[in-house]
């Protein structure tokens, strides 16, 4: 990933993952055991366990919501024909089934949790895409664009309700606790979207505000994903809290990397346009960090972005004009700061695992997923 | 209420309620004990117990969602000044606190349930008003009209999440059961809205389809309202199911009356325009029943409504033109059928209470609320 390669230290021996990119982050101060973990297999396991249950849950929706949801998940195309869409990286279900193993339970115990977090995640995507007016997601037209705003609202609502249903129909005390934690995460998700919307109308956003918003939008649900299987497996609150700390900081690392990819990512890998976040005038971490840094490049960037905000011709800007803005962000230190922030959050995430007693292979898998998140290219 | 007065039998002695309209529905086949119950006081009790807790819950929302929600509930006006808005009839909180007393618990035990059902109800209003493009609710501009579509989506989502939070933070097994029942009701609510939207695009809707839609949109949440306090008070599933049967059929009676008021209601009482549902081309019960009835008036009505659906001048129709349509609906029997349906559902609702052991004053209150629902004028 360009953002991290730029600022990364030397490669760390012993962190190679089978079939994966070598992580470019330095080890945590107290290195966790880093056995060879196949991250691709770990992600695939979560996807394989969760998808049939997710599809069965979505099939419960009354027409036409079942069809609209199936389109959103990429299982069918806009004409209703079966499709094999890009369902995303599936980090959340991988974390949910892995967290069940913390308690010694089978990964299957985490499956209702994996399905519930995926349903909440996709509820928020459906509503956010409509609120933000985003026309594309995962290389396809968004639901509101294809099926209209009412269906995007309605199916989002239905997926949210379904998430609670999938958990609560287990009927156990653990399911009640898991739903409560998921509800807290969902409220944070909504808070984050509210902040995101309000920041769009402001000239300046502080680094702290940006981190708080990203913690809500990305950290909270990755936190719930990292604890939900354990809670279903009977873990106590201290264990769940520690796993949520891991997930929350993993989310912040994830989002910092996302923000780097949003500017300097390779369109071939990300599936997005070049300078994607700049085109959307997103006040992402590299931008707010560059603006907060001070100095000539920071001041020049501030002047240019203020002028851009008033420009009526912004959509027709050339590649060179966006490249110039990206260069100023980098010159002001926004790129390096964000890469450093990703590494910092990665360290906090991995250290949080120290507070939890768990089998060594499970710990190694959590660590490998954290490593994966900061080296990914998409 | 015009719809029922038209078709009602003689007034039944012994059903008078203090300070209330005399019920115009015949008694159930096995008359429930009908002590003098002050329905106004019953509604006021639910409102008084629930409102402070509801306001405290809404205060938890991050800005600007707290303000938008306060506007929606009528606690402040569009400029942010305190207001004493019309919060609605508050039948749901009255049922929720009453249902706690079924188990011998204090009405306060039902309060988190009352707040949760009010939150879910208002989540659905916020989203439905946006989906339906409705600009007015309770004599005021709707949230999407004042604060924009994004806030209507976001605050709706937040109220839905808050409903689960308010229940699940009780941390009890009963709270988990109550949340599960509320989730089932919410899914039905969403199904009903999906049906409502799809029916708008169809020429004909059967009476059965209309009843199913109304059962989902209105019956399901009144069902949950009628059981939630009892569940929180420790009632078993059979008791909760019987109370939900009461609430479901109460909801169908409620909606039949609403459909009558939507055509023949007095604008002074309802706060809506004359012939409100006809202006919106709603396929409500009197309309679908009239269309299904057959005969000359039914056929003539079908022809007129089919022409109306294609008319580009519909919004400028005169009072007389709507009055003529209403007269045809009545001539075809749609008004009388719907009034009869309200009475039929009222009887089923009250009979459902026979399956539940509960203190006599509680039974009398449930019965009085059912009577109130079918005689109300707004």
TrEMBL record, chains A, B:
Pfam families: polyprenyl_synt
Region (Disordered): 1-33
This protein's UniProt keywords: Magnesium, Metal-binding, Transferase
Domain of life: Bacteria
Presence of the UniProt keyword Nucleotide-binding in the record: no
InterPro entries per UniProt: Isoprenoid_synthase_dom_sf (IPR008949), Polyprenyl_synt (IPR000092), Polyprenyl_synt_CS (IPR033749)
Family the UniProt entry places it in: Belongs to the FPP/GGPP synthase family.
Name recorded for this polypeptide: Polyprenyl synthetase family protein
Taxon lineage: Bacteria, Bacillati, Actinomycetota, Actinomycetes, Kitasatosporales
